Amino acid sequence: MNALFAILLFLIPIFLILTRGRRSSKRYPPGSLGIPIVGQSIGLLRAMRSNTADKWLQHRVMKYGPVSKLSLFGKPTVFIYGQAANKFLFNSDSSTVSNQQTESIRMILGDRGIQELSGGDHKRVRDALLLFLKPESLKQYVGKMDEEIRKHLQMHWQDKQQVTVLPLMKILTFNLICSLLFDLEQGTRRDKFLECFQQMIEGIWSVPLKLPFTRYNRSLKASMRVRNMVKELINEKRKKLEQEGASPRQDLITCMLSIRNEDGEKVLTEKEIVHNVMVVMVAGYETSSALITFIIRFLSIEPAIYAAVVQEQEEIARSKQLGEFLTWEDLAKMKYTWKVAMETLRVVPPVFGGFRKALKDIEYDGYLIPKGWQIFWASSMTHMDTSIFPEPSKFDPSRYEKQPVPPYCFVAFGGGPRICPGNEFARIETLAAIHHLVTQFSWKLLADDSFSRDPTPVPAQGLPVQIMPKKTTLPPKY
Q1: Apex 268 CA angle, 100 and 263, nearest 5
Q2: N or C: which end of the chain has fewer CB atoms below 10 A?
């Protein structure tokens, strides 16, 4: 009897350990991590470039359910989606989930950008960016933005019979960033900046293999060149502040250099300024150019919506004197045009998805998200949910007039405390650009309306269009 009791005492702990291990393993989300380092990265990137990423994710949902594990860009990852997932990610305590991106994004854009920070650091940097990017500050720059857009159209659109929209919109958004955010005028320096910047962003979403032939490696090298250029800009702005007493609000870099706390100490380090300048550049360049491009695309294939936008914008144009710039009050009248922009963001979100990092073991929807794992979410999965947006494939700007969108369902700009600080800048440049495009030109698509992602959406052939100038009095040339 004593021997049997001793055996039981020996076996019970082993049994408990084994059963606990089995219970724990069942709590991990279903799915496979795939090949080490590579995992499912190549499959996702291929799906994005063939515009089948939504189907790729839907297939995972059908196979594994709303929560599944995989490996992306060198890290074990849990994929979640939907309104509850968005709310969880955008509102999680900074001790639970951090805003850490993939290694490729972090290495190329830096580890002190707002997209990497959490808690107090995130709030500090966000508040600093909003000093320049909040509506109250941007009001004074509407005229300057309008001037840049007119210059662009006169240089690249007027007297042309055909243009390719996406590359031109990228030139426009880059010039707006350089002019308004960095006070960097046109010339060889800006051209060199653009060349290095375009090389840098090619590998932002990539497998982090630092080999000579990879996009990731080429982007890393370009990133170092861009950082050095930004540092030169910062040094020049700092000297002007010290020697000439430059206005702290003349551009974003000068604004960030000027910020002090209650003790008179600098709020941002130079590294944080460099990294956040790069983040703002990428966000403003990639997402805004895609948004304006796809608005043009949808207006090409939706004649009734195009007519409504033209009517709204021509009423504003008729209220202006010849050569008079747009104002903040004019932008406020562009309500229908912004609904068109919102519907464009819903159907073709410039940001396909994003990443977070679990800082500790997390219970979510009955599963364990282990400490250190990535969490991947995709905006399009919510934007195309029939329970939230009836007939989601239909392009319908009027849906925003019928009833408000539930919280954390439209997440083109993020949500909660994580909402993009540059959303107001994007709204202004989009509305101003569309105003001049529809009042000065009409156009016709010269390619099919398909698109791919790399990682932002790219229409077929860059969206070539035939353009016809309207018989209106053009603004004065510059």
Answers
A1: 135
A2: N
Three-class DSSP labels, 89-100 = HHHCCCCCEECC
Calpha distance 351→345 (Å, rounded): 9
pTM of the model: 0.86
Structure tokens at 360: 């500790």
Per residue in 34-66, pLDDT (tens digit) is 888 788 888 998 998 888 988 999 999 999 999
Question: Mind listing the pLDDT tens digit for each residue in 125-146?
Answer: 888 888 888 888 888 889 999 9
Asked if 453 and 49 touch (Cβ cutoff 8 Å), the reply is yes
Terminal-to-terminal C-alpha distance of the chain:
102
Report which DSSP code applies to 405.
P
Candidates 270, 244, 242, 248; CA nearest to 183 is 248
Asked whether residue 420 is marked as a ligand-binding residue, the answer is yes
Identify the H or E element spanning 358: strand 353-358
CB 205 within 8 A of CB 105: yes
> Which runs of E-coded beta strand occur in 14-107?
68-72, 75-79, 97-98
pLDDT tens digits, residue range 65-83? Answer: 999 999 998 889 999 999 9
Q: How many CB atoms lie within 10 A of CB 333?
A: 15
